[in-house]
Amino acid sequence: MEDQSSRRFSLKDIFRLLKGTYKAWNNDDPWRLSAVVAYYALLSLPALLVIVVNVAGSIYGQEAVTGELTDQVSAAIGKEAAQSVEEMILEASKSEQSILSTIIGIGTLLFGATGVFFHLQKSLNQVWNVRQDPKSPFKRMVFDRVRGFGFVLVIGFLLLLSLALTSVLSVLSDWFRAQLPDILIPIFFLLNFLISFGVITVLFALIFKFLPDVDIQWRTVWIGAIVTSLLFSLGEFLLGIYFGHSNPGSTYGAAGSLILILLWVSYSCLILFFGAEFTQVFAKFYGHPIQPSSHAVSVKIVERIEE
């Protein structure tokens, strides 16, 4: 696309932006990327859930957090999948008896919980046409794992914040409902949606800003995060309807719940990658600077060196 650095965002550019986004998204083989991340997400899920539940549950209570998570999963992909998630949390939370087993268990927990972010980073690097410098030292991989664990803690914090705000809103809603007409109920429903939307937007913004190996401005990140959140909210609603009526996991018997989780994560990743592509296309279209990080190089440069 031509240099548009002197122009500001205009609604007239939406069609060109979406067209460019779809073309870039389709060229990066999003189905394969989503399937890879979904696979590692399923492997990471027990450890990820345990850490998130413990982080948020340390303040709000583990039962409340577990209940909120299972309710969200139930609304998205059904009660059976939610029950499987709850069982994962219970099984993975069981403590080992020996000290050695406990140490190994904690190490496995941390390594497993960061796996999905490690592979999500690789996929986002492909979207942004960069990759880590082949000469990058081993400590870079360790740093990536630590960064992944940081994202696990961020998810726990955002979940805690969402629960707290939703609880306050629920109390206020009950009070106003007793004092005032039911006309205010839609307003509280809208506020609840905005809280959820805001939390998701912050999470996407942090993912786009800190996970891939690129330096990108916050003004571009927020645009991409908001668009991705809109698409994610719409996709979540449509997926809820689809899974609620078609139940694609029913043909897999006992493994049906796991298949549903895989499908849900895979479809969600498709939306995430589309949002990442939109962020890149938007930045290039309006001339926002994008540079590989100090420890990364452009894919074109790597290909030229290897030739």
Short description:
The protein is mostly helical.
Write the layout of secondary structure elements.
Blueprint: H1 14-27, H2 30-60, H3 62-77, H4 79-92, H5 99-127, E1 130-132, H6 138-179, H7 185-210, E2 214-216, H8 218-246, H9 256-285, E3 290-292, E4 296-298, H10 299-306
Antiparallel strand pairs: 1-4, 2-3
Q: What report would you give on this structure?
A:
The chain starts with 13 loop residues before the first helix and ends with a helix. Helix 8 runs antiparallel to helix 9. The N terminus and C terminus are likely disordered. A two-stranded antiparallel sheet has the order 1-4. Strands 2-3 form a two-stranded antiparallel ribbon. The longest helix is centred in the middle third of the chain and has 42 residues. The radius of gyration is 21 Å and the shape is globular. The protein has one domain. It is built from ten helices and four strands. Helices cover 78% and strands 4% of the residues. It is mainly α and 307 residues long.
